[in-house]
Amino acid sequence: xxxxxxxxxxxxxxxxxxxxxxxxxxxxxxxxxxxxxxxxxxxxxxxxxxxxxxxxxxxxxxxxxxxxxxxxxxxxxxxxxxxxxxxxxxxxxxxxxxxxxxxxxxxxxxxxxxxxxxxxxxxxxxxxxxxxxxxxxxxxxxxxxxxxxxxxxxxxxxxxxxxxxxxxxxxxxxxxxxxxxxxxxxxxxxxxxxxxxxxxxxxxxxxxxxxxxxxxxxxxxxxxxxxxxxxxxxxxxxxxxxxxxxxxxxxxxxxxxxxxxxxxxxxxxxxxxxxxxxxxxxxxxxxxxxxxxxxxxxxxxxxxxxxxxxxxxxxxxxxxxxxxxxxxxxxxxxxxxxxxxxxxxxxxxxxxxxxxxxxxxxxxxxxxxxxxxxxxxxxxxxxxxxxxxxxxxxxxxxxxxxxxxxxxxxxxxxxxxxxxxxxxxxxxxxxxxxxxxxxxxxxxxxxxxxxxx
Length: 453
Ligand code: FAD
Ligand code: SF4
Fold this sequence. Notes:
By secondary structure, the chain is an alpha/beta fold. It has helices at 6-9, 22-30, 39-42, 50-58, 62-70, 76-82, 89-92, 104-117, 141-152, 169-172, 181-193, 210-215, 246-254, 281-292, 313-322, 388-391, 423-426, 431-450; strands spanning 2-3, 17-19, 133-137, 156-160, 197-199, 218-223, 229-230, 243-245, 273-277, 297-301, 325-327, 330-337, 343-356, 362-374, 377-380, 384-385, 399-400, 404-405, 418-420.
């Protein structure tokens, strides 16, 4: 896929990847073998009929391709951009055994972007209201998917969202240069066109409790509140000025438009040298955002080696081309401040890799050597965890680990009528796994209301 020039793009927030041209899409679609037993479908968490949509592209029926995708996935332009296809559908494509697998994600994005470019919109779905109200809490990919699927079945759906805009991490976590806001907004408009109502600035657990929602006549509740609380390293200096947690840093830029300060009044401090701690997508997004805010040098500080990094390979390559410096086998042990309480450096241990741990990745251990890295800003991107506001407000709700909701394979919690899915039940995962959970829960909620035992 074509991308914008690395030097130019590293100083603005416009989208990096440009998508396939019509010619490229046709050429790629013609490589597909149209397998009788398509392994790619087994690799897709929402089981899109991949050969069918690729066949439509081959026949230059681009709107038809999108119609096929939308039967399974109502966020195709989003998934075509951010899904880790290399570990999912594409990793199963039979062609991958000998040569490059089909670029399924790029083709999905092409079909969705074609519709947007041509100003086409999906044919309206005929809905027969069934008179039952269901509440969806959180407007991330899990909540939007559950809401859309239930609305299509005739349910009267209200999404309650804590923030002032809908979209969850898609909106406030993933930066504009990877996933433009207008794309998310367009897909949310589609969900609203199904009759779904979205109430913003509504923190369930505070503004209103779940019991109150049931008393208001909601027959079931789907909880898709994600895992948005930051994780700490608990090292000295974490409370110095100019230490950010990635979720706050990214939210300030993505949602509060910090880069447009003073036009918008929630800035982030500009820095010359930034260290981002972590090796996942969140770290990569934070580093590339810091660069775009004007930093001269941005380091990714990661305690294992490049082979163990959990972020998407494509994002790592984009980051490297943009000039992000990778400090592998490096573990910060202290953030050092100046006399005014601002970050001036980090003290790091040099690490070595030992035998694999329970995650299957080689375990890092201190080599005994340490060094100082001069930086004036630190962004912690070592993971997120569950936010306790809602879960703690529900008496008797069964939780696991760091406060995640325990559910069965259909998303049912231990309390009848309360379902959950996405990051709040699995821990931080992916967009498509959250959507898959929303889908399964929608079916289970329908069974719960329409076919009570
Ligand atoms: P979320 O997207 O977190 O949405 C939850 C929503 O619930 C939020 O809008 C929140 O405001 C709202 N909420 C919370 N509490 C309440 C409450 N009490 N009342 C009402 N509303 C509430 N995944 C990928 O597949 N590919 C990527 O490239 C990728 N990049 C990522 C980059 C970043 C920076 C981050 C943070 C995550 C990334 N992920 C990526 C992971 C992916 O975004 C998440 O797994 C996914 O968004 C989880 O969806 P969700 O619907 O469960 O929760
Ligand atoms: Fe096409 Fe690959 Fe799927 Fe076969 S496995 S149908 S070649 S995308």
